[in-house]
Amino acid sequence: MGMTTLESAADEAALHDTAMRAAELWRNRDITGYASALVRSLGAGSATDWGLGGGGRTSRRAPISLAGGIPDAATQPKEALLDAMRRALDTPDDAPLVYGGARGYEPLREEVARYFGRDQSPTPGADHFVLTNGAAGAIDLVCAALIEPGDVVISEVPTFTGSVRTMRGHQAEIVGIHMDDQGIRLDDLDAAVARLRREGRTVKFIYTIPTFQNPTGLDMSLARRSDLVRFAAERGILILEDAAYAELYFGNQRPPSLSAIAGGHGVITAGTFSKVIATGLRVGWVQASPELIAAMLPARFDMGNSPVLHRMLHQFMVGGDFAVHVDQMRALYRRKAETLAGALREHGAAYLDFATPGGGFFLWLRLRDSLTGREVQAAAFEEGVIFPPGDAFYPDRDPGPDGECVRLAYSWTSEAELREGAKRLIEACQRVADSRQAG
Fold this sequence. Notes:
The protein is α/β, with parallel strands linked by helices. The chain has helices spanning 9-27, 37-42, 78-89, 106-116, 134-146, 161-169, 186-198, 222-235, 258-261, 290-296, 307-318, 321-348, 373-383, 415-438; strands at 64-65, 129-132, 152-157, 173-180, 183-184, 203-208, 238-242, 267-272, 284-287, 352-353, 362-367, 385-386, 405-409.
C-alpha cells in the first residue's frame, strides 16, 4: 500500500527538493508556447467582448460608466430569487443537486417555451430548447455544432464583439454586411452570398440581433425581418437570431421574432435571462427545431448547466414574479433611455446624431464635425465618463461608410448619473473640437 501522508522529515525534504527542481526546469520554458496557434491569435478578449464596463485612463472626476450592457443592480430581484431558491430546494430528495443532463431541466424548458415562444404558432415545446451558459453559451454551442474550419458566417455590422470572437474561435471567417435604418442590407447580403458561392465557400449561417441591436439599438423592421427569413430559406442558409434584448421593448408589443416569422424553420434563436434579470445568472438557451437541437447535443461536453439555478428560475417564472419584474424593467429602461437622450439633445446637438431607441440597453451616437470615436473616448475618460468607440464593434475595426460613432449603455447607471454623463460627454466633444481648431 502506498503512503498517503509524510512519514519523516526526510520525506518532506525530498518533496521540497522535487518542487524546487520542477520550478527550476519549468522557469526556463515558454509556457505560452503550449497554447494552440488559434488561441494565441485570439487573445483573452476585451472588456467589450466580455460585456464589462471597461476603464483604464486617469479621470479628473469619479468615473461614470456608460460602457457595459448590464441590468440595473438596484432593481435585481434578489429577495424574490431567494424565495424561489428556497422553494426549488424544498424537495424530498437530492434531485436538484445532481447533474442536469445535456438539455437542461425540462420544467424550465417548458416554461421558457411558453413565455418566450408566446408569439409563435403553434407554441414550441420543451424539445425545441436546450439550456446553456447564457446567450454566449448558446452561440458557442451553435458554433461548435455547425462550423467547420474555413466556413463563413455572415454578420450584420456593427455587431457584438463577443459573438464575433466566439465564431472566430471556431475558425469561421466573418463577412460583415452593413445596415440601413431598417436592418441588414439585403442587396449587399445577396451580392456577398453570390460571390462566396462562386468562390466555392460555405456560408453556414447569418448572424443577426434583430431586436434592439447591440450596439446600435436598431429594431429591424417587420418587412426586413420577413424578407431576411425568405432570403435565407430560398438559399438554404440558417439564421442565428440573437434575442438577448427582445423582452426589453418600450412600446405595447414585442417585435416578432425571426423564429416566429419563419414558423420555426431555418432559424436558431439564442436567448438569455442575463439581460432581464442579472448577467451573473449565466442561464440562457438555444431554440431550434427538435431535429437541429438533437444535432447540436453531441457538441456539448460541459456536463450541463446548474440544475439548482434552473429549478430556481422555474419557480421564479411559474410564481409570476418574472413577468412582473420584466414589466418593471421595461418602464425603468424606457425612462433611462429618454433621460440620456434628452440630456444629449439639450447639450450636444452640434456634435451628435442619434435616434432614441425603442428598447434594449444602448444608444448609438454618430459624431459630427469630423470627430472620431477614439478621440472622443480618450477625452471623455479624462472628463470622467467611460464608453467604447464605435469601431470596436466592427470585425476589422473599420466602420467604412457608417462613419465615426460611439456606443452608450444606459441600463446600469442611475438617471442622475446619465444626465451628468451626457454633460461630460459633450464637454469632451467640445474639447476635441476646440483642439482641432487650435491646431
